Amino acid sequence: MARLMAGLYLVQSAASVFGQLFISSRLFVRGDPATTAGNILANEVLFRAGITASLLSVGLHVVSAVLFYRLFRPVDRYFSLLTALFLVVASVIWTLAALMFSGALVVLDGGTSYRAFGPDELPALALVLLDWSDEIYNTGLVFFGFWCAAIGSLIYRSTFLPRFLGLGMALAGLGYATFLYPPLASAVYPFNLAIAVGELALVVWLLVAGVNAERWNALADRRRSATISAS
Questions:
Q1: Of 83, 99, 71, 87, which Cα lies nearest the Cα of 206?
Q2: Percent of the chain predicted with pLDDT > 70
Q3: The pTM is what?
Q4: Cα–Cα distance measured from residue 61 to residue 66, given in angstroms and rounded to the nearest whole number
Q5: Are 202 and 170 in contact (CB under 8 A)?
Q6: Residue 121, pLDDT score
Q7: Average pLDDT in the 48-54 region?
Q8: Rounded-to-10 torsion of CA 121, 122, 124, 126
Q9: Which of 25, 50, 160, 171 lies closest to 104 in space, CA to CA?
């Protein structure tokens, strides 16, 4: 299960980077609606692929939320559930960001519904939707940061993963949490994303070493016995 989680993490991260960051850097020209509109329409297949990748990433994040909850449930069942909810909320927000991309494409394709807008107004409207998409995506990063920090806490309290991985995830969460105040995120960029290397350390560990199954099972048995005694 640990290796499955790591594999999903890599795929979802790659899909998210391609769908949001790569497409933005390749096609969008900030403050230039006409050029941005031209780039999108000239590379519509690439733009649609970015939307698809973003939505794929959302689905995989939800699956990851369930798997991480299952992994850390023996540590603290209720806190693990709260942790999963952070990632689900982030996924819902990122879905809205992807739909803003789709909305921009609908606007640029035109049609009878947009006859009231002038030829220069449609690209401007599309650029507004793209800017909103960026803001919404960054809001999702805040909740993703909460998830990373919570996972770091669970790792630190667990006995089946090294504590330094928990500290790394907590630092990654702190970096993403800077997007709660955009001026701060801009001031510390790219260092706020560089400390997200803690995520990579966790993924590599899960791929190579997995978890200590004996300690996980022992912890799960203790939690199960405590639950039976309480009932």
A1: 71
A2: 94
A3: 0.90
A4: 9
A5: no
A6: 83
A7: 93
A8: 160
A9: 50
Under a CB-based contact definition with an 8 Å cutoff, are residues 78 and 118 in contact?
no
Q: Inter-axis angle of helices 197-208 and 121-157, to 10 degrees?
A: 60
Q: How far is CA 12 from CA 54, 55, 142, 153, in A?
A: 9, 10, 17, 22
Rounded average pLDDT over 21-31: 86
At 112, is the secondary structure helix, strand, or coil?
helix
Burial class of residue 71, CB neighbours in 10 A (0-12, 13-18, 19+): buried
**Tokens 């790792």 belong to residue:** 155
Sign of the torsion formed by the C-alpha atoms of 103, 106, 107 and 113: negative
Distance of CA 115 to the CA centre of its chain: 37
Cis peptide before 33 (omega within 30 of 0): no
What are the domain boundaries of the chain? 2-230
SS3 195: coil
pLDDT at 222: 85
Looking at per-residue confidence, does 231 or 64 come out higher? 64
What is the C-alpha to C-alpha distance for residues 90 and 139, in angstroms, rounded to an integer?
A: 8
